[in-house]
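Subject: Sanity check before I submit

Could someone independently write out the structure tokens for this chain? I want to compare against mine line by line before I put it in a report. The sequence has 259 residues.
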Amino acid sequence: MLNTRVQVLDVPVDCLDWRSTLEIVERDMQSAGPAKAIIAVNPEKVIRAQKDSELLSGLRRTALLIPDGIGVVLAARLLGLGHMERIAGAELMPKICAIAERCGQGVYLFGASPAVNEQAAAVLQRMYPKLKIAGRQHGYVKESEMDGVVDSINASGATVLFLALGSPKQEQWMLRYLPQTQVKLCQGIGGTLDVLAGAVRRAPPLFIKVHLEWLYRLLSQPRRLLRQTALPKFAMQVVAAMIAGLGHPPAPGSLRGEP
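---
Independent answer below. Compare away.
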């Protein structure tokens, strides 16, 4: 699949399938140059980026923007922007660990509570016995201590940094601190460590299969209701864009990573 960057309601996202995503990850993991970031794009983030110029600017400079929400996938198709698969960040993270294990690359886990961070690391080690977990740091860190965290990441020699600080904090961290690191790849993974550690249950397979994982999260975590108000806003904007005929294919040569 040609990896093309498109604009969904003026917010960038990459047209990807699983094969192209994993090929890009393995290539970037072994490439020279500055760290490359992976950020998930879903309807909630699209709505937030429309109002947050710093976030939008950061997304436009991000190496890989995965279509994490089924809403983004459907919007791209309805607006005639391209066909993409849903690349769930929670599923991509362990696949990256598998690649790191095979390639002999170390990973660093930054985020979540101390107990969750430790338990998630233990689970990953059981899943991938030869995976090198080069370092760990829970997410309860003061801003004054952040330079020390960056030093720890660099001293670990890790190739991959998993950032579990939640959105938008992890995107803000990437914008400010990722250029100071020596990793090759950094993925924002939200609550994935909580899922791995068993502190939070992911949706049952049936919900995932029919693309209703967002509904399961809402039912099991009612406090997410305010955040989920982004979904109807996103849907209405997509319908309005369809009526106005604003969807259009990407311009030739508009590949990922280009502004």
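---
OP: Matches mine. For the report I'm noting this point. The beta strands are 4-8, 11-15, 36-41, 64-67, 106-111, 132-137, 160-164, 185-188.
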